[in-house]
Specification:
The chain is mainly α. It is built from six helices and no strands. It has helices spanning about 1-5, 15-25, 30-35, 40-50, 55-80, 85-105. Helix 2 crosses helix 3. The longest helix is centred in the middle third of the chain and has 25 residues, at about 55-80. The relative contact order is 0.11.
C-alpha cells in the first residue's frame, strides 16, 4: 500500500511504510539492525525511540510534502470536477491533524 501511495494522491504513504517497517523489524532482527544502523533513517529512529522526538528538518519535509499533496488533490478535484467537496476536505483535514501533531513533538537534544 505504501508503494501505491507514492503514485496515488491522498493515500497516506508514510503511515503504511512506517507500519511495514515496524512490523518487519519486529519479525526480523537482521532488518531491525539494518534500519537502526542506516545512515539516513537510523538517527531518526534512534531519536524517536529515546525521546519521541522529530527533527525540525523532518517536520518541515513532512509539512511541505503534505502541503504539495493537498495542492495536487485540490487541483485534481478542480480539473475533473466530478468529486464531492468532502472527498478533498477529509484527506486535507487528516493532513492538518497530522501536521499539528507532528509540530507538537519535541526536537531531539543537540549533540555536544
Amino acid at each position: 500500500m505504501g508503494i501505491v501511495g507514492v503514485f496515488v494522491p491522498g493515500l497516506p504513504t508514510t503511515v503504511f511504510i512506517l507500519v511495514a517497517a515496524y512490523a518487519a523489524s519486529r519479525g526480523s532482527e537482521r532488518l531491525h539492525r539494518y534500519l537502526v544502523t542506516h545512515p539516513r533513517f537510523g538517527p531518526m529512529i534512534h531519536d524517536w525511540h529515546l525521546h519521541r522526538a522529530v527533527s525540525r528538518r523532518a517536520k518541515w519535509a513532512a509539512t511541505w510534502t503534505m502541503l504539495a499533496s493537498a495542492v495536487i488533490l485540490v487541483a485534481l478535484m478542480l480539473w475533473t470536477a466530478s468529486h464531492r467537496w468532502w472527498m478533498v476536505a477529509l484527506p486535507i483535514a487528516c493532513m492538518a491533524v497530522v501536521a499539528a501533531w507532528l509540530w507538537q513533538r519535541p526536537e531531539p537534544p543537540r549533540a555536544g
